[in-house]
Design a protein that fits this description.
By secondary structure, the chain is an all-alpha fold. It folds into two domains: 1-108, Orthogonal Bundle (Rna Polymerase Sigma Factor, Chain: A); 114-193, Winged helix-like DNA-binding domain superfamily/Winged helix DNA-binding domain (Arc Repressor Mutant, subunit A, Orthogonal Bundle), CATH 1.10.10.10. The protein is 77% helix and 0% strand. The radius of gyration is 18 Å and the shape is globular. The protein starts with 6 loop residues before the first helix and ends with a helix. The model is unreliable at 93-99, 102-107 and 111-117 (pLDDT under 50).
Length: 193
């Protein structure tokens, strides 16, 4: 069964012409690629488009993967650059970034009516909600480090910056995440009381 194969073995099979091997690679990484794309795009449709573009770009460039890093690091680099390009194109079309950001925040605010109450109370819900309120750069670093379980060096390679810069950015992103969580949870406590 191919799902037991390593990423490298699946890449070798894909390059040998086995399309199902690439489908296994996509299945293995699609959830996290989508999550990362959603951190940038802030809406499902754009995130799906970014994720699809990433897998197409990865497939076309698979022969260029040099195995100097993990496949996931290489793939997430593609996600980052693709998302940044998509965001730049989107910003060119807008007249006011502030208005767009306000719209995105309002659009993505949970209403409480369409989400199960137990889910609203879960820790991961609040963390994801707080991450969605961060800038794309902060959300990316937090997501890569905690959900992608990437090292500082791997994140540095993905983002094309020094590991020390990642360390500083991660520290600052954690601080901003903490502030968002404190503010969101304070609001939730008021609603419960």
């Amino acid at each position: 069964m191919q799902s037991k194969l390593s990423d490298i073995e699946l890449i070798v099979q894909t390059l040998s012409g086995d399309q199902s091997a690439y489908a296994d690679l996509v299945k293995r990484h699609q959830r996290f690629v989508f999550t990362l794309a959603l951190r940038f795009a802030k809406n499902r449709e754009d995130a799906e488009e970014i994720a699809q573009d990433c897998f197409i770009k990865a497939y076309r460039s698979l022969a260029l993967f040099k195995q100097e890093s993990k496949f996931s690091t290489w793939l997430y680099t593609i996600v980052y650059t693709t998302a940044m390009t998509a965001l730049r194109k989107k910003r060119v079309d807008t007249t006011s970034i502030d208005d767009e950001e306000t719209y995105i925040q309002i659009e993505n605010t949970p209403s409480g009516y369409d989400v199960n109450n137990a889910e609203n109370k879960s820790r991961s819900f609040y963390v994801d909600q707080a991450i969605s309120q961060l800038t794309p750069d902060d959300a990316t670093i937090i997501t890569l480090f905690y959900k992608g379980e990437q090292s500082l060096e791997e994140i540095a390679q993905t983002l094309g910056i020094e590991a020390n810069s990642v360390k500083v950015k991660l520290f600052r992103a954690r601080q901003r995440l903490k502030e968002k969580l404190e503010r969101n949870l304070k609001h939730e406590v008021k609603e419960l009381v």
